[in-house]
Write a structure and sequence with these properties.
mainly alpha, 327 residues, 0% strand
Length: 327
């Protein structure tokens, strides 16, 4: 069958499914299941005969959306907050997983720029971090206390200030996405270049190992959350630039709703990072190295699993439940 005829034959049905997804037409769970099966059949046909076509991309996107619509009609018996973190956010992470990849690629690129800039321009670190901070840290390194800057102030006061500052940075990474994602990339560039030059600064003074023992105690949660927040900004920007079959306003509403939920999921990690930085990092060099490694690698395992691995697990489990219910 020619693709043009295939589209003409099914166009009205697909538009009707869009109306259902947007809530303009109400359907009960059984009808939704029937629509899902029908759409999956169309998708399978398109993947077989038009694998590189925009039609296949469109049907795949439409299938994902009605899949979510079906799942949301199920009665949620568990606590709403538990459901949010256990199911809703992971499903959104799976749906937008390529944006997480984009965010990490930009993060690596921008951090590398910070490292290279610090290597080839010895004044770059002073410009980025501030001369006062650099001089203080050099003195700390000479005194065998590379993380001395984290030991100033009270634990409680430092923790509160750090948490609010980190949430503010994350909010900028996200909200700036409204400028088509360009604002998010600029904010990510600024923070990543700072990180890259910061790490090279310690390497240049022979204190990379000591600094890493302290910085990455809280840095794993803080930096990983920052990348996820940048991902949210990119989703928001893409919803404006690429509305697909939606009107631009409806696409923005959907993009904002989905990305905001993902953004909220980073807040607990940001708070944990602030608590660790305020209470634990100051003792980094006095702690046994093994304890440093347990906290750093444990944090990486937790947040990496939640945002990279768990979404696929939830998607496959949910998909199996839906298919079992349909069949």
């Amino acid at each position: 069958m020619r693709e043009v005829y295939f589209i003409k034959q099914n166009k009205e049905k697909w538009l009707g499914i869009e109306q259902v997804i947007q809530g303009k037409i109400k359907k009960n769970p059984d009808d939704l299941s029937s629509l899902y099966i029908n759409l999956i059949n169309d998708l399978s046909f398109a993947q077989t005969y038009y694998p590189k076509s925009n039609t296949t991309v469109y049907l795949n996107h439409l299938s994902a959306r009605i899949f979510q619509k079906i799942y949301k009609t199920k009665r949620v018996e568990e606590n709403r907050l538990v459901y949010f973190f256990k199911t809703e956010v992971p499903l959104l992470m799976y749906q937008y997983r390529r944006y997480l990849m984009y965010a990490f690629l930009f993060f690596i690129l921008f951090t590398s720029i910070g490292v290279l800039s610090a290597i080839y321009d010895k004044d770059f670190v002073n410009i980025i971090l501030g001369e006062g901070y650099v001089n203080e840290t050099i003195e700390n390194i000479k005194n065998n206390n590379a993380v001395g800057v984290y030991q100033s102030g009270s634990t409680w006061g430092s923790t509160i200030g750090i948490i609010f500052n980190n949430i503010q940075v994350g909010a900028k990474l996200y909200i700036y996405g409204i400028a088509g994602g360009v604002g998010t990339l600029f904010a990510l560039l600024s923070n990543s270049v700072m990180l890259g030059s910061f790490q090279y600064f310690f390497y240049d003074y022979g204190a990379l190992k000591e600094s890493a023992r302290g910085i990455w105690l809280h840095g794993v949660f803080e930096i990983f959350a920052m990348v996820v927040e940048a991902m949210c900004g990119l989703i928001l920007g893409a919803s404006i630039l690429f509305p697909r079959t939606f009107s631009r306003f409806n696409s923005f509403k959907k993009g904002f709703k989905d990305s905001f939920k993902i953004f909220l999921s980073t807040v607990p990690f940001t708070i944990c990072a602030g608590i660790i930085e305020g209470y634990v990092t100051r003792h980094a060099l006095k702690m046994p190295l093994l304890l440093n490694l347990i906290i750093i690698l444990g944090s990486l395992a937790i947040i990496g699993f939640y945002y990279f691995v768990y979404p696929s697990v939830v998607y496959k489990k949910t998909n199996k439940h839906i298919h079992d219910a349909i069949l």
